[in-house]
Amino acid sequence: MKDASEPSNIVSLSQRLDPSSERGGALLNNVRDIAGRRLQILINGMFEHVDDALFDLAEKAENNAAQMHYFDGMREVRKRRPMVERGFLSLVSRELSDFASKYRTTTSGVPLPIGTGELSLVADNELEESLAITSMIGKNETRLTRELFAVNQRLSVIYGGLQIEDSTNPVGPAALSQAFRQAMRELNAEMRVKLIIYKLFDRYVLASLDELYQEINAELARAGVLPQLRHEVARGGGAQRGAGAGAQDAGAAGAEGAEGGAFLQDDEGAASNELLQTLRTLFSARRTGPEGATVRLPAGAVQLPSANELIGALSVLQSQAAINQHLPVHSGSSNALELAGEVQQLKEHLLAQIGSLRGEKPSQVSTIDEDTIDLVGMLFEFILEDRNLPTEMQVMLARLQIPYLKAAILDRKLFAHRQHPARRLLDNLADAAKGWSAESDRDHRLHDKIKSIVDRLLQDFDDDLSIFERLCVELQEFQDISRRRAELAEQRVAESTRGREKLEQARRRAAREILSRIDGKNLPPLIHGILSRAWANYLVLTILRQGEESSEFRDALRFAGDFIDSTKPARTLDERRALRQMLPGIERALRRGLANVAFQESDIDRLLAQLHTYYRHQLGEAVPEAEVQAVEESRSLPIPESIQPIAETQEELTRTEPEVEPPLDTPESRLVAELKPGTWLEFMSEPETVERAKLSWISPMSGRYLFVNRRGLKVADYSPHELAGALAAGVARVLDSTALFDRALDAIVGRLSQPATATSHTTE
Questions:
Q1: CA triplet 670, 673, 674: central angle to 5 degrees?
Q2: CB contact at 8 A, 680 and 735
Q3: Please, what's the largest Cα pairwise distance for the chain?
Q4: Mean pLDDT of the chain
Q5: Are 704 and 640 members of one domain?
């Protein structure tokens, strides 16, 4: 018996209204009015922010040409804004009115989702625009799942029972985005300007659709259209498909509804970022048939595998992989190629294993599981192609495909969170492996540690995801110990290099000072030898200890001048008196200076005795001719072995000066200028000899780049000019510092965005 309190005008899901009927038309008009009013406010508010956004970008533009593009865009928006607004609102209103008739005339009775085939593009600009559109559609459909579900169901009643989904809802994010894209054709602006406007549309229009859907739902519920509808979405998306959808069909739909992007969501239920939303859309595009319709599971087909069945089958395959891990393997590219084939065949192996477990082989898996399998497969294909990793490390890490597929099925958030333990572990393993080479790992410590982690994941990982966190901590502790050891060695190498450079710089400075004073002067060999050998080394020592600005260095230079002056002929009484006054100071300075550069006392006495003979002769005193001749012809000094000779002529000094290389403006030289300590490079000294080294230090004196291996030992040092040449010749290569997962996801998006893959679809 019907409850008297129940309104008589309630419309249930099993009932249908005709949009051309009086009541259906009135409800449709209400929806159209609500949408028109709210969207007018939202689109108006969005355009109020366009001017400011473009002006800010113009101010930050990298050059005048880019700045003019933004200013031109501002003028175009001001001029065309009314037409874009009117066009957008008109398209939305027309879509609401014409939806039922358009829906029924689509090929084979299946609705063509708005925007299907958007990725089959011919122009880069269109691809960029399409990715922006599909990204914001996916993000907002995920965010608005609950509200959209209720709107879909209620509009389905108004439109005579037609099935309405997120992609076909005339006020859904997809329809509104496509209507705005069409209205934007009125705008004659550069693509960079249009992309900014699309971002603002996402921020100020799509992000505010909650209130629009709440008002539509409230209005229709008050009018008796499904007033008791619960805003929930059943697992597998079956509830979204409307009344009467068969269980088999709902199962085939898989995760096309609320769960379609579950493996890309974060804890708060919102999309983690645009990149992952783009991935979701690209995988969705791959699942569509040639006419844009999603391929359905045929009636009577084998039931799709459950998550538990997938985990069970993967555990069997993982056990087999763990056994194979202990078998001898061939290193090198042949093994990598073999593994690449295994990566591509994993889905077939998985289905075959499920078939052997249940007795009948399924032909496919659910949509979300297929996306997960494909995404993990593409991740490990990327690892096997990643030139950032040595071949031995590629082969080792590629063994982790099955454990990571299990982890991704157990926790769909693996790909959405940078801090997910499984993701951090793989990133950290790749980062450690990046610096590996056989030469730097002669004790096999790093190789064995990475192999140990791979083995343990294959052997021990069942369904407890905490193993990834434990292994992360273990790897971090190993890396911390290795890093501390390497840092000590690296510091010693840098200090040694810095010391040699300071010494060379001091020697060149001392040589320049001495040669500038004795050049062109006919000095006795004894005086010349003392200045160019002994005293030059004292200058070097003074520079290193006290510095070039010290009073000690100035005093040492002053002595060199006085010593040279003392060789001038003393013919007059005044000249002799002046020379006698200089001699005690010369002797004191020589004793102190020569003692500092390791002259023995006996050698200093012998040298001073020769000088006494020379000066006595200069002063006109009676000196045996043989002694004078011996001093004048003396070219050998009692110099200790620790005293290294420096340049004794200007020509020799010029040859030892570092060449001043002309600045180059090439991509390689610009890349060298941007390198920072900590960057890893790969060097190929010979075709078969490859070494990986980290930029440890850039000399502030010579500008040379010092490279060390992962143990902190020196591999090479280059001038900027030499390093740019090595990069240009292909014998050096900069390794990417971006985390493995981020690089892989970018590469996967690029691969899926290619027209050849955009048109492909699953053969289910």
A1: 90
A2: yes
A3: 149
A4: 80
A5: no
